[in-house]
Amino acid sequence: MGTTYDRPAQTRVFTVANQKGGVGKTTTAVNIAAAMARAGLTVLVIDNDPQGNASTALGIEHGPETLSTYDVLLGDSSIADVVQTSPADDRLLCVPSTINLSGAEIELVTVDSRETRLREALRTYLIHRSSSDLPRIDYVFIDCPPSLGLLTVNAFTAAAEVLIPIQCEYYALEGLSQLLKNIQLIQAHLNPALAVSTILLTMSDIRTNLAREVASEVREHFGDETLRTVIPRSVRISEAPSYGQTVISYDPSSSGALAYAEAAREISRRQAPALDRQSPATSTENGTA
């Protein structure tokens, strides 16, 4: 866990998405983020899922009265107003989700610039940190609901990279074609910078032929976007959120924690798709339009 990770030249913004539930999406978002923070990087998790599981795993307050992603999307608060620091690591920040977010999709329908609310809020926050001499955010991970509504559209519009966790089980690729079509629509109409940069195989039992077959199929389909690291099925990973922790802090020497730490290191060693594909949310961070 002491391995050093490469610090990116500028903030990298990932949306973690898969419309299929139960694939380790939130678990991946919080544990990659926690591993990077433990390695010395400054990381922001935006909990954009009404279930609020990312907030829970990071030990973040997210009761009904808590200022949250909902308030940011509706324009009532800035990210600077709502962001919290995880008790596990002062380099790990979180914009929490509350139950109020479940109504945001309906409320956003009648709002101007409804698809770009999160992008503009994130851009403003990154500029705010730069002008306030606060440490630069190295990575942003946006956790999405397992759906393709306005919450997910906002996440795709704010990011430059998509991380897709895929469970090593039968029908692993089911539903991915629709997700990829939606990403293409976002690229065409809202965010040409968006790219699927990272595929992570999760919940793998390497003792089974099925897990090996699924891994082979995914690597054949996605090629170099697929990380070499595979996340094993792990009781410790499953237990950690019930203690308000990631597995990185709950049991850092466990196989699950070590695998997520290695996946995070692998992501950090990879280059972002290209500077001309930077997140729209970071396009003015360094004074460029």
SSE layout:
Elements: E1 12-16, H1 25-38, E2 43-47, H2 53-57, H3 69-73, H4 79-82, E3 84-85, E4 92-95, H5 104-108, H6 117-131, E5 139-143, H7 150-158, E6 161-167, H8 176-189, E7 195-204, H9 209-222, E8 226-232, H10 235-239, H11 247-250, H12 255-269
Parallel strand pairs: 1-5, 1-6, 2-4, 2-5, 6-7, 7-8
Antiparallel strand pairs: 3-4
Helix pairs in contact: 1-12, 6-7
Structure overview:
This protein is α/β, with parallel strands linked by helices. It has one domain (12-282): 3-Layer(aba) Sandwich (Rossmann fold), CATH 3.40.50. The chain has helices at 25-38, 53-57, 69-73, 79-82, 104-108, 117-131, 150-158, 176-189, 209-222, 235-239, 247-250, 255-269; strands at 12-16, 43-47, 84-85, 92-95, 139-143, 161-167, 195-204, 226-232. An eight-stranded mixed β-sheet has the order 3-4-2-5-1-6-7-8, sandwiched between helices. Helix 9 (209-222) links the parallel strand 7 (195-204) and strand 8. Helix 1 packs across helix 12 (255-269) and helix 6 packs across helix 7. The N and C termini lie far apart (38 Å).
Highlighted features:
alpha/beta, Rossmann fold, 8-stranded mixed beta sheet, 12 helices, 16% strand, globular, Chromosome partitioning protein, P-loop_NTPase
The major sheet is characterized as: 8 strands, mixed
What does the radius of gyration come to? 17 Å
Q: What is the fourth-level CATH superfamily?
A: P-loop containing nucleotide triphosphate hydrolases
The low-pLDDT segments are none
Mean pLDDT: 91
Strand content: 15-25%
- SSE ordering: EHEHHHEEHHEHEHEHEHHH
The name of the CATH architecture is 3-Layer(aba) Sandwich
Region (Disordered): 269-289
Organism: Litorihabitans aurantiacus
Protein name: Chromosome partitioning protein
Domain AAA: 12-195
